[in-house]
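Practice problem 4.
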C-alpha cells in the first residue's frame, strides 16, 4: 500500500520545490569562466581581453551587479594551445561550475571546445576570433560579438585594390586561424577575378618566420596579408624590411595592435590593420567613453583595441543577463541573446538572431604612422 501512495506524495513535494538552478548562479553571484592565453608570445591578447572585461564587470558590480548578483570572472590559461583549452574548459565547467563561458581567444582553441559547449549545453559568449567555423553553421551555444575574418579580409583586399595592387599574397600561421583568414582573402579576391599570388606559413607559438619571409621576398607581391599574433608578425615586419621587402603590409585585428606597435615602432610605418572596435581615442560613442573610464580606473593601461573588445564583449553579455531577468538560466540566456536584434549598446547596435550569432559586422581601418597607430581615412 505504501509503495503506491508514496509516488503521488513525492511528486507533489517535488512540484512544490523550486527547480534546481544551473551551476554557477546563486542569489548573489554569477560565475563566468574565461579560458584563454595568459602566457607565451600571444599572452597580450588574453590579458587584454581579461583586463577590459574585468574593468567593466568591476564597474557593474560596484553599481549592484545584475539583478543583485555580482559577476565573478574566473580565468584559466590555455597557452594558446587547443588541448589545454579543452582541459581547462572541462575544469571550468565541471570543477569551477561556471554558469557561462566568456572571452576565449583564438581560432584553434575555440574550435577545440565547440563539441564541449554543445554536449554540455553551456553558453560561450564574446570570442576573440573571427573564424567562420564559429559562425556558420550556427552553434546554438556560441555568440560572437566581433566582425568575422571574412569581413576583415574583404575590407583589406578592397583597400589594396584601391591602392593599385595587382598581386596579393598571404603569410599565415599554420593552423585554423591562419586558414580562416586565408579563406576570407581567397573569397574577397575571387569576387574580383583574382587569386592569392603566393602563400607561406609559420608555426603557432613560435617566431620561426624566416622561411615564410624568404618565400615572400621571392614572390615580390604588391601586398601581403599577414596572419598571426603580434610577436611573430613583428619579427616578420622588422626582418622583412631589413631584407628589402617592398610589399604593402596588412593584418587583421587578432594581431593585438597595441602590442604590435610597441614591438615594431617606426619599423612598422605603413602597416595597415583592420579593427573590429572603434578607434579607442575617439569620443563620439558613449560605449567608447564608458570603456575608457572603466579601463583607466581599474588598470594601468590606456584603452586600446584589445581591452576595448574585452570591455565591449562584457557589455554585450551583461546586457543579455539584465534582459533575461532575475530568473535567468542558461536556456533563457541563449534565448535572450538571440532576441537582441537592434540593441543599442552606447552607439554600437548589436544584432543577433536565430540565424546570426554575431553582434557586429563593421570593420574599422587603421595604420601605423610615426611609430603610432592612427585612423586610416
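Answer key:
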Amino acid at each position: 500500500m505504501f509503495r503506491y501512495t508514496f509516488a503521488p506524495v513525492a511528486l507533489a513535494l517535488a512540484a512544490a520545490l523550486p527547480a534546481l538552478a544551473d551551476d554557477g548562479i546563486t542569489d548573489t553571484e554569477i560565475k563566468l569562466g574565461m579560458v584563454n592565453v595568459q602566457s607565451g608570445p600571444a599572452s597580450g591578447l588574453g590579458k587584454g581581453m581579461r583586463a577590459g572585461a574585468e574593468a567593466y564587470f568591476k564597474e557593474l558590480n560596484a553599481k549592484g551587479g545584475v539583478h543583485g548578483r555580482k559577476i565573478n570572472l574566473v580565468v584559466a590559461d590555455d597557452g594558446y594551445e587547443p588541448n589545454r583549452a579543452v582541459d581547462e574548459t572541462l575544469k571550468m565547467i565541471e570543477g569551477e561550475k561556471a554558469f557561462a563561458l566568456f572571452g576565449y581567444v583564438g581560432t584553434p582553441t575555440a574550435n577545440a571546445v565547440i563539441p564541449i559547449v554543445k554536449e554540455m549545453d553551456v553558453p560561450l559568449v564574446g570570442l576573440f576570433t573571427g573564424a567562420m567555423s564559429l559562425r556558420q553553421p550556427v552553434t546554438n551555444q556560441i555568440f560572437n560579438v566581433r566582425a568575422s575574418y571574412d569581413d576583415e579580409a574583404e575590407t583589406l583586399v578592397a583597400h589594396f585594390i584601391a591602392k593599385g595592387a595587382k598581386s596579393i599574397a598571404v603569410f599565415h600561421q599554420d593552423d585554423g586561424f591562419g586558414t580562416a583568414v586565408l579563406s576570407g582573402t581567397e573569397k574577397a579576391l575571387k569576387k574580383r577575378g583574382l587569386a592569392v599570388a603566393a602563400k607561406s606559413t609559420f608555426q603557432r607559438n613560435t617566431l620561426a618566420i624566416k622561411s615564410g619571409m624568404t618565400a615572400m621576398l621571392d614572390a615580390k607581391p604588391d601586398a601581403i596579408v599577414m596572419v598571426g599574433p603580434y610577436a611573430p608578425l613583428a619579427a616578420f615586419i622588422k626582418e622583412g624590411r631589413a631584407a628589402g621587402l617592398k610589399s604593402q603590409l596588412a593584418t587583421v585585428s587578432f594581431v593585438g595592435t597595441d602590442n604590435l606597435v610597441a614591438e615594431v615602432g617606426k619599423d612598422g610605418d605603413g602597416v595597415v590593420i583592420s579593427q573590429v572596435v572603434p578607434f579607442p581615442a575617439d569620443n563620439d560613442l558613449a560605449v567608447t567613453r564608458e570603456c575608457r573610464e572603466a579601463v583607466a580606473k581599474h588598470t594601468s593601461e590606456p584603452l586600446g583595441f584589445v581591452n576595448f573588445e574585452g570591455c565591449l564583449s562584457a557589455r554585450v553579455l551583461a546586457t543579455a543577463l539584465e534582459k533575461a531577468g532575475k530568473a535567468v538560466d542558461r536556456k533563457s540566456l541563449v534565448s535572450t541573446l538571440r532576441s537582441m536584434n537592434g540593441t543599442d549598446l552606447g552607439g554600437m547596435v548589436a544584432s543577433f538572431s536565430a540565424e546570426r550569432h554575431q553582434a557586429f559586422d563593421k570593420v574599422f581601418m587603421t595604420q601605423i604612422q610615426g611609430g603610432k597607430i592612427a585612423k586610416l581615412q
